[in-house]
């Protein structure tokens, strides 16, 4: 009995006939166990949340700005605020306790680093806000 | 059990539903395992490789853009995982260069093979596939069992279409040679 099938047809038929093989009964259970372990291991919870870091960054930035604006550089110099023209909004007679801050002298490198940090913190805050907005749109 | 489209399970998995991934595994585990076993020729190692491949697929599921079929993407991971294990183990595969010359009238031989009982034939084909080189076995399995197109196999195996065609041709020849070697001469004479 001579068949009309060619070599390729036979191979196709035989391989198809052979079908697939079953892995052991525990295969999926073991895999899911591994997956569970990987999942619990890969979820990282930082002690300080990104939001807290951003708040800290913003706080430091504000502090740096305040220092630059309000604390005079030397004995003879005046604060930047004092450069502003005098104007009175209301003549209230409120006596506030006089706070005396110690004079802090920052080194140029420290100042530059603080400004750099401040810029980076602002960028991080902007990107976070954009990301949250994006997530809100998708949800 | 009737399964849904792969994308249904992928979306659910990405939303955090691990059970959906379990169903996706259940849907593809047999073919995935078969492919790994045909390459590795060892059940235990094939199971490990398949598990690791599914694990890797889960971890990088978010990077699956859907440009290709999920199975193409999955089989590529399995294929690479299995080949990686072979490289690591440096296992020696059965070289078929030494196999005896194939008889000229292969269709007559294959016709005869067809008359064998199903179980005997399956056992013979299984052994023949086990004797193939890993890449040949992978190409034959993907092309004939999973009916993947040459284009898809190109992606999975990271080879050109001409290389795939050569692999398929060699695979067919090697399989026939292996089966012929496995069947004893009495059977051949009977046919």
Q: What do these coordinates show?
A:
- The complex is a heterodimer of chains A (139) and B (191).
- With 139 residues, chain A is an all-alpha fold.
- The model of chain A has no long low-confidence stretch (mean pLDDT 77).
- Chain A has helices at residues 7-18, 27-42, 50-70, 80-83, 108-138.
- Chain A contains five helices and no strands.
- In chain A, α3 packs across α5 (108-138).
- The two termini of chain A are 67 Å apart.
- Chain B has two domains: 6-89, RNA polymerase sigma factor, region 2, helix turn helix motif (Rna Polymerase Sigma Factor, Chain: A, Orthogonal Bundle), CATH 1.10.1740; 106-190, Winged helix-like DNA-binding domain superfamily/Winged helix DNA-binding domain (Arc Repressor Mutant, subunit A), CATH 1.10.10.10.
- Chain B has 191 residues and is mainly α.
- Chain B starts with 5 loop residues before the first helix and ends with a helix.
- Residues 92-102 of chain B have low confidence and may be disordered.
- The chains are: A mainly alpha (139), B mainly alpha (191).
- Chain A binds chain B through residues 1-3, 5-8, 10-24, 27-28, 30-32, 34-36, 38-39, 42, and chain B through 18, 21-22, 25-26, 29-31, 33-34, 37, 43, 46-47, 50-51, 54-55, 58-59, 106-108, 110-111, 113-114, 118, 121-122, 125-126, 129, 140-141, 144-145, 172, 175-176.
List keywords for this structure.
heterodimer, A: 139 residues, mainly alpha, 2 domains, 5 helices, rod-shaped, B: 191 residues, Rna Polymerase Sigma Factor, Chain: A, Arc Repressor Mutant, subunit A, 10 helices, 73% helix, elongated
Helix and strand succession of chain A? HHHHH
Tally of DSSP β-strands of chain B = 0
Q: Please give the alpha-carbon distance between the first and last residues of chain B.
A: 42 Å
Highest-level CATH class of the largest domain in chain B? Mainly Alpha
Tell me, what's the shape of chain A?
rod-shaped
Described by the principal axes of the CA atoms, the overall outline of chain B is: elongated
């Amino acid at each position: 009995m001579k068949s009309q099938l060619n070599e390729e047809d036979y191979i196709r038929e035989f391989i198809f006939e052979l079908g697939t093989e079953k892995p052991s009964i525990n295969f999926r259970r073991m895999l899911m166990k591994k997956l569970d372990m990987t999942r619990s291991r890969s979820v990282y919870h930082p002690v300080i949340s990104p939001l807290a870091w951003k708040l800290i960054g913003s706080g430091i930035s504000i502090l740096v700005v305040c220092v630059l604006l309000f604390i005079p550089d030397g004995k003879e110099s005046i604060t930047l605020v004092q450069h502003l023209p005098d104007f009175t909004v209301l003549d209230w007679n409120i006596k506030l306790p006089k706070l005396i801050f110690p004079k802090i002298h920052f080194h140029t490198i420290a100042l530059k680093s603080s400004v750099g940090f401040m810029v980076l913190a602002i960028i991080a805050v902007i990107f976070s806000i954009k990301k949250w907005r994006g997530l809100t749109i998708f949800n | 059990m009737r399964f849904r489209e792969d994308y249904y399970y992928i979306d659910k998995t990405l939303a955090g539903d691990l059970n959906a991934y379990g169903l996706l595994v259940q849907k593809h585990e047999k073919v995935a395992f078969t492919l790994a076993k045909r390459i590795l020729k060892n059940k235990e190692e094939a199971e490990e490789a398949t598990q690791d491949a599914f694990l890797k697929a889960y971890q990088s599921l978010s990077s699956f853009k859907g440009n290709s079929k999920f199975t193409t993407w999955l089989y590529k991971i399995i294929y690479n995982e299995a080949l990686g294990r072979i490289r690591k183990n440096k296992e020696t595969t059965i070289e078929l260069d030494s196999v005896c010359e194939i008889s000229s009238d292969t269709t007559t031989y294959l016709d005869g093979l067809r008359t064998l009982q199903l179980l005997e034939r399956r056992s013979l084909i299984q052994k023949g596939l086990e004797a193939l080189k890993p890449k040949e076995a992978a190409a034959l399995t993907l092309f004939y069992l999973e009916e993947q197109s040459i284009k898809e196999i190109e992606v999975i195996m990271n080879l050109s279409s001409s290389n795939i065609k050569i692999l398929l041709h060699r695979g067919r020849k090697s399989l026939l040679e292996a089966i012929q070697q496995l069947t004893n001469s009495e059977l051949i004479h009977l046919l």
